[in-house]
Protein backbone atom coordinates (compact mmCIF):
# COMPACT_ATOMS: atom_id res chain seq x y z
CA UNK A 1 0.00 0.00 0.00
CA UNK A 2 2.90 2.32 0.83
CA UNK A 3 4.36 1.62 -2.61
CA UNK A 4 1.03 2.55 -4.25
CA UNK A 5 0.89 5.92 -2.48
CA UNK A 6 4.54 6.56 -3.27
CA UNK A 7 3.93 5.90 -6.97
CA UNK A 8 0.70 7.92 -6.84
CA UNK A 9 2.52 10.92 -5.38
CA UNK A 10 5.32 10.76 -7.98
CA UNK A 11 2.88 10.43 -10.88
CA UNK A 12 3.16 13.53 -13.04
CA UNK A 13 0.15 12.61 -15.12
CA UNK A 14 -2.42 14.58 -13.17
CA UNK A 15 -5.20 13.76 -15.61
CA UNK A 16 -4.66 10.04 -15.23
CA UNK A 17 -4.60 10.27 -11.45
CA UNK A 18 -7.84 12.26 -11.49
CA UNK A 19 -9.44 9.69 -13.78
CA UNK A 20 -8.44 6.86 -11.47
CA UNK A 21 -9.84 8.75 -8.48
CA UNK A 22 -13.11 9.29 -10.35
CA UNK A 23 -13.33 5.61 -11.29
CA UNK A 24 -12.67 4.60 -7.67
CA UNK A 25 -15.36 7.02 -6.47
CA UNK A 26 -17.91 5.61 -8.94
CA UNK A 27 -17.10 2.02 -8.01
CA UNK A 28 -17.29 2.90 -4.32
CA UNK A 29 -20.69 4.47 -4.84
CA UNK A 30 -21.95 1.43 -6.68
CA UNK A 31 -20.72 -0.88 -3.95
CA UNK A 32 -22.37 1.26 -1.28
CA UNK A 33 -25.63 1.35 -3.24
CA UNK A 34 -25.54 -2.40 -3.68
CA UNK A 35 -24.97 -2.90 0.03
CA UNK A 36 -27.95 -0.70 0.87
CA UNK A 37 -30.17 -2.52 -1.63
CA UNK A 38 -29.04 -5.90 -0.34
CA UNK A 39 -29.64 -4.82 3.25
CA UNK A 40 -33.18 -3.71 2.36
CA UNK A 41 -33.83 -7.01 0.63
CA UNK A 42 -32.54 -9.02 3.59
CA UNK A 43 -34.64 -6.90 5.97
CA UNK A 44 -37.76 -7.64 3.91
CA UNK A 45 -37.01 -11.36 3.85
CA UNK A 46 -36.51 -11.47 7.62
CA UNK A 47 -39.77 -9.55 8.17
CA UNK A 48 -41.62 -12.04 5.94
CA UNK A 49 -40.10 -14.97 7.78
CA UNK A 50 -41.03 -13.45 11.12
CA UNK A 51 -44.63 -12.96 9.97
CA UNK A 52 -44.85 -16.60 8.89
CA UNK A 53 -43.49 -17.77 12.24
CA UNK A 54 -45.97 -15.54 14.11
CA UNK A 55 -48.91 -16.91 12.10
CA UNK A 56 -47.71 -20.48 12.65
CA UNK A 57 -47.31 -19.92 16.38
CA UNK A 58 -50.80 -18.43 16.61
CA UNK A 59 -52.22 -21.43 14.75
CA UNK A 60 -50.46 -23.83 17.09
CA UNK A 61 -51.74 -21.95 20.13
CA UNK A 62 -55.31 -22.09 18.78
CA UNK A 63 -55.00 -25.81 18.02
CA UNK A 64 -53.57 -26.53 21.48
CA UNK A 65 -56.38 -24.56 23.12
CA UNK A 66 -58.97 -26.54 21.14
CA UNK A 67 -57.43 -29.87 22.14
CA UNK A 68 -56.72 -29.11 25.79
CA UNK A 69 -59.47 -30.03 28.24
CA UNK A 70 -61.20 -27.15 29.95
CA UNK A 71 -60.30 -26.76 33.66
What structural class do helix, strand and pairing data support? Answer: mainly alpha
What level of helicity do the residues show? over 70%
Give the domain tally.
Answer: 1
Would you tell me the overall average pLDDT?
A: 81
Our count of helices gives 2
What is the percentage of strand-forming residues?
A: under 5%
Q: What string gives the helices and strands in order? A: HH
Largest sheet: none
What is the number of strand segments? 0
Span between termini: 74 Å
List its salient traits.
single chain; mainly alpha; 89% helix; 71 residues; 2 helices
Protein model, in words:
It is rod-shaped, with a radius of gyration of 28 Å. It contains 2 helices and no strands. With 71 residues, the protein is mainly alpha-helical. It starts with a helix and ends with a helix. It is 89% helix and 0% strand. It has one domain (17-66). The chain has helices spanning 2-10, 14-67.
Report a brief summary of the structure.
The protein has helices at 2-10, 14-67.
Question: What is the secondary structure topology, with strand pairs?
Answer:
Elements: H1 2-10, H2 14-67
